Amino acid sequence: MSRLVRVTLAALALTSGAAHANDIVAGVSDTIRVRVGTPLVARGPAGDIADNWFSEIELPDGRFRGFTAGGVTWAIDGHHPYEMSGPGTAVLRAGPSGSSSTCGQWIQHVELVGKTLYGWIHDETACNYAKGQTHASMTIATSADYGLTWKIQGPIVVGTDPPAASKFTGDSCPSVMKGQDGYDYAYCLRNGGQSWNGGYTFIARAPATNPAPGQWKRFFNGAWSEPGVGGKSSPVDGLGIAYWTTTHQTIGLNWVRGGIGLQVSADRLHFTPVFPQPLMLVTGGDWGRHDGLELVSYPDLIDAKTGLNQLGDNWLLAYMYLSPGEGFAKRYLIFRPVDISWSRAPEETVAAEMLTHWYDAIHHDHWATIAPVPGNYTSYRLVAQLGYMMTTADPAKPTVELEECISKAAGPPDRILTKKGVCEQSDYKPLRTAGFIYTTAQPDTRPLYRCYSESEHSHFASNDEACDKMGKREELLGYDLNR
User: Fold this and answer.
1) Is residue 9 in a domain?
2) Is the pLDDT of residue 1 over 80?
3) Segments forming the whole domain that contains residue 398
4) Quick check: is 309 in a domain?
5) With helix as H, strand as E and coil as C, how does the chain read?
6) For position 21, which CATH number holds?
7) pLDDT above 70: residue 205
8) What is the CA 453 to chain-centroid distance, rounded?
């Protein structure tokens, strides 16, 4: 399936919309505080999940039904929007030979209109994944039983480029959003969004009450004038899209230096970063899995209460995750809480994410990390939430960058959280940047110590000078945020 990549996009000549977006962002960024909580490994490892942007609905009985896919689309029920670990039911599979879905069908988004559930489906055909080749298009389907069975209605977004050897071709729409103006908006990728292959992001829309085939129009040269099937389109900038009901804006995820950032738009066409620093730090592992680092992809936002991409101020960031050193047969579906506050003091950090301490008693393995922990709440128990790490250095106060590393020696892994640069000087391999903390105590901070259990040969972190009686203190790393 298509990969979320950075592409260089041509600017649209709609400067008034861009100026309006900048005005709104100025009002948001002056007051907003964003805190990203402990990641939850909801599903995996498996090779046929989390190969799409996650979407879900609330069922009449109060449970939630989510859709994850990897060629096959699975429906999963849970009691909460983040609870997606139960049995999966296959609801869509690859289509017949010669169809647009011979390689699989991925549900990208669902919307409930009355008692009819609409599903936006990414189809692939002419695939040779070993050579980087596939051909994509979008169909829409309906379900009368909340997504357990589907009836394909027909194509809605189809490109003009034919399949080609060793290339990603065709059009597909990873993100769909109800715009609260009577339209559904689909943010789509031409040729996988790959700039070297003539790809870019574009937008199409249809009436929210009737998003059927023939109703979709692409935005081209300032107007919604081109048909969804075979039409022309102009580049825009937006993926991982949701509607932020608090501010009445379209909000999206984008890649910024160091990780995933937030951007907003007043007109759905021009996006401006909410703040320059990452919302969540990500070490950029490669899709070829050659560098051995973690990989994050298909990030999108849903509301923590409703599960929809109509957002209040408490969100869930959903994404695919590959652990360092592992391949696509071991995908994980991750949910991470994102909480918005509008009472940030001028000196407070805008964005920060939670550091946690986990412990596997059977294998005597401590793990202090900002990353997902496979086996969370089963083989690993949560010892403590250690405070928030800043995603960039504070320009006004002394800070230190911490990184997570793992021992190179044979035997059980020793995971260490330490100051950047220390790992390269010893027998440890860096895994990721963990964030920034203050070198001296500041208001509303707590100390963070590096600790070591000699009996278990395992490092960890603690806010307690006595290391919670689980080991001995090695070093005061600095001070992280209480909130």
Assistant:
1) no
2) no
3) 352-481
4) yes
5) CCCCCCCCCCCCCCHHHHHHHHHHHHHHHCCCEEEECCCEEEEEEECCCCCCCCEEEECCCCCEEEEEEECEEEEEEECCCCCCCCCEEEEECCCCCCCCCCCEEEEEEEEEECCEEEEEEEEEEEEEHHHCEEEEEEEEEEECCCCCCCEEEEEEEECCCCCCCCCEEEEEEEEEEECCCCEEEEEEEEHHHCHHHCCEEEEEEEECCCCCCCCCEEEECCEEEEECECCCCCCECCEEEEEECCCCEEEEEEEECCEEEEEEECCCCCCEECCCCCCEECCCCCCCCCCCCCEEEEEEEEECCCCCCEECCEEEEEEEEECCCCCHHHEEEEEEEEEEECCCCCCCCCEEEEEEEEEECCCCEEEEECCCCCCECCCEEEEEEEEEEECCCCCCCCEEEEEEEEECCCCCCCEEEEECCCHHHCCEEEEEEEEEEECCCCCCEEEEEEEEECCCCEEEEECCCCHHHCCEEEEEEEEEECC
6) 2.115.10.20
7) yes
8) 34
Together in a domain, 410 and 317: no
Q: Is residue 7 part of a domain?
A: no
Do 304 and 442 lie in one domain? The reply is: no
Q: Are residues 57 and 110 in the same domain?
A: yes
Q: Are residues 435 and 475 in the same domain?
A: yes
- Average pLDDT for the chain: 92
- pLDDT value of position 426: 86
> How many domains are contained in the chain?
2
Q: Are residues 371 and 315 in the same domain?
A: no
427 and 467 part of one domain: yes
Q: Which of these three, 341, 370, 397, is where a domain ends?
A: 341
**Mean pLDDT, rounded, for 85-103:** 96
What pLDDT is recorded for position 25? 55
Do 429 and 368 belong together in one domain?
Answer: yes
Contact 139, 153 (CB under 8 A): yes
Q: Are residues 356 and 335 in the same domain?
A: no
Q: Is the pTM here over 0.90, yes or no?
A: yes
Does some domain include residue 322?
yes
Bond into 346 cis (ω within 30): no
Please say which residue of 291, 306, 341 terminates a domain.
341
